[in-house]
Amino acid sequence: MLLAQRSLLRLAPRSPSSSTQCLAAAAAAARRPALDPRLQHAGGSTLITAATGIDGSSNNGAMTVPPPPPIIDIKPQLLSVAPMMDWTDLYYRQLARLISRHTWLYTEMVVDQTILHTPFLDKFLWFPPEQHPIVCQLGGSNPELLARAAKIVERYGYDEININCGCPSDRVAGAGCFGAAMMLRPELVAECCKAMCEAVSTPITVKCRLGVDDFDTYPELAHFIRTVAEGSAVRHFIIHARKCLLKGLNPHQNRTIPPLRYEWVWALKRDFPNLDFSLNGGVLTLEETAAALRIVNGEQAEQAAAAPSDDAEQGRPEAAAALAAAEASGEGVAAAAAAAVGIPAGSSAGVSGRQGIWGVMVGRAAYNMPWDMLGDADRAVFGAPTNAATSRQQVMRDYAAWADRMIGHWKVEADGHKSPNVRTLVKPLLGMFHGEPRAKKWRAAVDAALKTAGTVTEVLDATFPVLKPESLDAPPRPLGTLPGRLQHYALELPPTPEWVMADAPAQQASSGSEGGGSEGGDQQAAQQQEAAVVAV
């Protein structure tokens, strides 16, 4: 197996500084101490200090003093919220963090030249320390400019920096050739990533699509991945499992019309086992997230537990028992999946993504229904003993206490207009009662209250009486209690490209000798392409 992993992806030589720094930063993040009790949720007053810039001032100037390192427990990126322009701003991220302590958060995309030239740097990059783990997504296509921007981003203390190679918006793809259009230039993407990795110690990642326009076959996607991985220290790719049509479809259509091909993401993990891949696109519930994370070694965890072991002609009841025990104890779906195939807790396999996809990235589902999507994530996905949030009311009251201190933080006009204003700060809350009785009446009441309210707290005081007490005070729904939302994905993996197999002559020779000649090799190839069924 080790020989196969080494031969399937032959990485080009790179400077020790780029790979060592990026990988060292990832290792350092994994070794961070447990969360300081002072940073844990205990009411709005303890979550954030005075709303000031990272340089200690309340103006919009550039940062002059780097932030202290966060004292938090950063878990693997099993679940993350996608970068979404006009949506995943500072205010939404604060709400999401109050709901889930461990879900990874991404900024809106920030263009490299904006970072290099704006006099209001804090407005684009500042975040309170409790928003860790957090990733800054950059847009650009010039290696030098991206490297300079990455240096500035690193000073703000982000846990990772992501480069946008997947956004279909004409605000991105048509301006300066970045976003999804970058997939048409894999060598340039590799140059950009290399420059960024050499400039900073913060890990660099790539978010991309399956393809763009006529660049839409699996071998072309695999070529893009290999080009970027061989040319830089990037080891984590977030794959939106749809192609993108830059001409003919608008951004909304590009999120819904091109078909989802989840099987390509698992095929990438099969063909590039030394890399990590996260799945993005079409995941609408926490159950579907759990379903994707259960795939280990190309099969569902329950199937692996029941399969014969390598050295015995019998099933693995002890693994099945470990799976049941892990789930019953609330250790999280990733730990349960690892237990099912006998992977030791805390090892680099399974939980780290070595044996399956690294994680799942959710988009608008996390914005439109944040409570349903994130409420049980800490316990069910990350294995925390409890969830960060106990009820919608608790989360929203704590958010309001924080948001009220942010009113007018960036600017107060001569006419009294404030940035941000109350309406901007209330916007992330509008999906909190998705699917609940009287949710529509509550949103109408919010709209009316915003005409006179001077704070977010006043809006909540005026509108909460519209709702039923159980909607306000019920705890998060446990995983598996959302009826009718489970889906079964039949994943028939595409064949491995010939040039990938050509990179593994030793593996092929070994397979032929151990499997009884070409017949054994053919049998192994057939097994690689068997359908994998994802189900909870």
From TrEMBL:
GO molecular function: flavin adenine dinucleotide binding; tRNA binding; tRNA dihydrouridine synthase activity
Region ranges (Disordered): 501-536
Superkingdom assignment: Eukaryota
PROSITE patterns cross-referenced by the UniProt entry: UPF0034
Sequence ranges assigned to domain DUS-like FMN-binding in this UniProt record: 81-294
Keyword Hydrolase attributed: no
Biased composition (Low complexity): 521-536
Keywords from the named record: Flavoprotein, FMN, NADP, Oxidoreductase, RNA-binding, tRNA processing, tRNA-binding
InterPro entries according to UniProt: Aldolase_TIM, DUS-like_FMN-bd, DusA, tRNA_hU_synthase_CS
A Pfam family assignment: Dus
Cofactor section: FMN
UniProt cross-references to NCBIfam families, sorted A to Z: PRK11815.1
Protein's UniProt name: tRNA-dihydrouridine synthase A
